[in-house]
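Hi, can you check this record?
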Amino acid sequence: MSSEKSAQTVPCAYKTGRTLGQGTYAVVKEAVHIKTGKYYACKVISKKLMEGREHMVRNEISALKRVSQGHGSIVTLVDYFETMNNLYLVTDLCVGGELFDRICERGSYYEQDAAHIVQTVVKAVKYLHDQGIVHRDLKPENLLFRDKTEESDLLIADFGLSRVVDDDTLSVLSTTCGTPGYMAPEIFKKSGHGKPVDMWAIGVISYFLLAGYTPFDRDSTAQEMQAIVNGDYAFEPEVYWQGVSPSARDFINKLLTVDPSKRMTASEALEHQWLSTDAAKQEGEQKDLLPGIRSAFNAKMTFRKAVHGIRLINRLRTESSEQVPRHEVEALRKGIAEAEAENVQEVLDVDLPDASGHQDKDKKEEKEGGGAKKEEGDEKMQEGSS
């Protein structure tokens, strides 16, 4: 023991401030470097909560160290250190907001805008893959703008599930991880996965950026998983796809390919017609996609909130020793209706995909009493083993 170096106390170089976000194992806070006064994002990871999953933090640090400052569209790891209770990862502070929020704030949004966004993401992912990094959790929430200016860089963030892989191990990652709606079939099948899972996620993101909803959205996570494994999706309802070009649909089809060996790589995606200069613009008159995207997104969210309220009522009835008074039930229903008054009509009017992923025009009138949509289900499925 006498030969071991004694622990040294190092003064902290940062002061943390407001909370920017919170997850299962960590909280992200705004931090200022005491000497320079520069602001960063600081991910504070609880050692106690992460016990047994320390490899996830090591993977994130390894990935970020390898790619930091190497590409303008990837968040930079500025510093990392630890205390007795926590691990700290200091990265760029992205104050420009999430991708989808910025889109919704625009006055208009066209297919060529979506193509430009996807091109930016694919270029960054190609760089990651060239450096031997698989992100494994690509989704709109992890695409952040550096600042609020119109010319701001779009950055890929959150490398908590990323892995550094060698060429020989590209197909042997086997842990189930990611966000369900964006996970590739091979992850659910546990057949081994690698870089192609990121390209599948880009296919889902592209679909979402053009329509406002994801291709495999179903009544439950189990049904969603089955649809993903089967590659069961369609460009429906047609009302949301009328202004979308054939090349955009072809781009998505070539990414949402169940067989990872036949899926486009990042290099191949960059050569696709849809991402070539002005391809989307050349295929016909441009339609503003923003109204349809807002309508579809709001309709989905409204339906889920309403179903969440009904499930809450049922849970109260089940768990309470006394039946919930009818007037309380009616009050809750009324509150849901009033809070979402403008959007509820969209749920009733728009023929959204059913559990099979297709429109059921014959049953449009039954939707008021139809099946329940799942609650918000974008929580990460964290790694169970390395």
